[in-house]
Amino acid sequence: MPGRPFLQIPGPTLVPERIVRAMSQPIIDHRGPRFAALVGACLDGLKRVFQTRTGHIVLYPGSGTGAWEAAIVNTLSPGDRVLACVNGHFSTGFARTAEAYGVECERVEVPYGDGAPADELERRLRADAAHQLKALLVVHNETSTGVTSNVAALRTALDRAQHPALLLVDTVSSLASIDFRFDDWGVDVALTGPQKGLMLPPGMAILAISEKALGASDKARCPRAYWDWRPVLERNRRGEFPYTPATLLLFGLEEALRMLDEEGLHNVFARHARLAEACRRAVRALGLAILCRNPAEYSHTLTAVVMPPGFDSDEFVRHAHRRLDLSLGVGLGAVRGKVFRIGHLGSLNDLDLLGGLAGVEMALKDFGVPVRLGAGLAAAQEFLLGQPISAGAPA
Ligand SMILES: Cc1ncc(COP(=O)(O)O)c(C=O)c1O
């Protein structure tokens, strides 16, 4: 189809022209003189995005799933026990990765649509007087449900219980879009991928690591070779990698970090919050329900929309693609066929969002869902007009 594809999934996101251009250049020698400066710029820029001064950054060619594995194998040993908050498809995957290495997961399961329950987690931590739980695993923004958990509250839970467990946080669909504070929230490992808020093509696993997690990695006994972060940290200090890095992605990352710096992280967060609220207003005006139950936990990077009874959301997503070349997220895990997801993250502005919402309305109507064309768009437009970009996040 002519025109631009409407990739309205919650990542990968559209790659801005500036980043495409930054990646369109000859490959350089990853042991040559130019490379060290590129690595340094990427690591420093990522520290700013993770909001850490003291954390260490490692990155590998890989994906978010690989980053789960890196977080586990470098901090834990087979037979260790961890507390895993499970509130969707991706938090289930994080726990399963730990289990694959013989780590015993005490799962705290909450329904899809809810965030991590800080009170219940605190209760479990207090009950573990012998400090057998070695880590708390949580997904900051559960991409299958559109729910953002309060990581600061989890830090408070750990502190109040005076529990030394490591705090391991998946920030795959929140970093560089939703406020995430590695240092302030006492996070030990935060992991992410490049294909969401960082606006890059997929292909990397990125982690921020605290001193405490570094200490744990000396004692961890999970088998590790590729994902061992010690040689990566060691060689990165000299501007090198112990393997062939994804050179072009690093050029793209350097440019993405420059773009985030230019916009200012707080403006990036405010833009995502504003677009997310416009999307939710559109969904409600169409008479549809949002899966996330607690408004304080609404995700600013995606909205999971409950499909009305009698309609299969996966068929709807296929229909939207066939009819309009519009890509929406399918329902994952327990909500397969029941929700579709609208991504609103990365390099996105008002008209990008409105274009996607127009497509959602058209696809719904064409699919037989009784919606009034324009109702959602008008609600989003009214909100966006009333909230100029400089106004920041809605109250
Ligand atoms: C929250 C979250 N964690 C982990 C992953 C897995 O990342 P990847 O698909 O890059 O392996 C995803 C992917 O969408 C995700 O949204």
Could you please describe the fold and organization of this structure?
- By secondary structure, the chain is an alpha/beta fold.
- The protein folds into 2 domains: 17-261, Aspartate Aminotransferase, domain 2; 264-391, Alpha-Beta Complex (Aspartate Aminotransferase, domain 1), CATH 3.90.1150.10.
- It is 41% helix and 15% strand.
- It has 13 helices and 14 strands.
- The chain has helices at 17-23, 35-50, 64-73, 89-100, 118-127, 151-160, 211-219, 229-236, 247-263, 265-285, 313-324, 350-367, 375-386, and strands spanning 6-7, 56-61, 81-86, 104-109, 133-139, 141-142, 147-148, 166-170, 189-192, 204-209, 289-290, 302-306, 326-327, 339-343.
- The strands form 4 sheets. Strands 2-10-9-8-5-3-4 form a 7-stranded mixed beta sheet, with helices on both faces. Strands 11-12-14 form a 3-stranded antiparallel beta sheet. Strands 1-13 form a two-stranded parallel ribbon.
- The protein is globular.
- Residues 391-395 have low confidence and may be disordered.
- It binds pyridoxal-5'-phosphate (PLP).
